[in-house]
Amino acid sequence: MQRKNFTEVTEFIFLGFSSFGKHQVTLFVIFLIVYILTLAGNFIIVTIIYVDHHLHTPMYFFLSMLSSSETVYSLVIIPHMLSSLLFHDQPISLAGCATQMFLFVTLATNNCFLLTAMGYDRYVAICNPLRYSLIMSKGICIGLVCGSFITGLIMAVLHVTAMFNLPFCGTVVDHFFCDIYPVMKLSCVDTTINEMINYGVSSFVILVPVALIFISYVLIISSILRITTAEGRKKAFATCGSHLTVVIIHYGCASIAYLKPKSESSVEKDLLLSVTYTIITPLLNPVVYSLRNKEVKVALQRAMGRNIS
């Protein structure tokens, strides 16, 4: 009977924001604007880093990789969500749902570990400035980026393999994309093992990077405090400000979304957290790095100046 129910489910339908009724058009406009700004902002960041040789450093290499990952991350989720808001009850096939979950987990994990690599880069730049170019060589940078992506692939394979071997009895996902818990709720059988896998993977993906970044910043702060001049300390802190802002918001939202007790979950809270994590956070990257980072602003001014000339 479980196999029969499993094979009968060929597609899912998202409830999404159906409870918002007449406000769905307003939400569509708001999310569309945020989506366009996210794509444009990340595209500008990647382009500026590529064309300006002053930004051809490990720090901005990681930033360009993060912006590229955030762009694809947005493409995986938001277009289908916008379509559902506008046309209602847009179905997604079982294979499409598995693909969306696979890409979502891969890129979300990749982003977490890219932020960790950026934290390590800041640690080396401040604590070992004389050996910076030797330690953060091109090979090491590429290795850290590839390692982040491969870790994401492994986590995604674990999630999707465990999830889509379950028999499903329902077709209505109480969410706006194929997130792990909303899809898991549609299973006909006990999902304790899947919940353990999800919690284990989430803990690894969130807590390990957070611990590594925390250690990096403890060493960074202790090194900065040893700088004798106030100007030197200010400059050192400034190089970490943008990264630290993104880290706090990114991991804060992820921790609340995926590490909170199941008893504290509710549809409204989960929707709000998911909107923050999947729609607002990708916009945060270009906004923070363009407003708080002097080198990016100068590079943008140089590019605009050349175009005007």
TrEMBL record:
Keyword rRNA processing: no
Any Gene Ontology CC annotation: plasma membrane
Compartment annotation: Cell membrane
Main localization, broad class: membrane
Positions of transmembrane segments: 25-51, 60-81, 101-120, 140-164, 204-225, 237-259, 271-291
Domain of life: Eukaryota
Task performed by this protein: Putative odorant or sperm cell receptor.
Protein name: Olfactory receptor 10J5
Native source species: Erinaceus europaeus (Western European hedgehog)
Gene designation per UniProt: LOC103120175
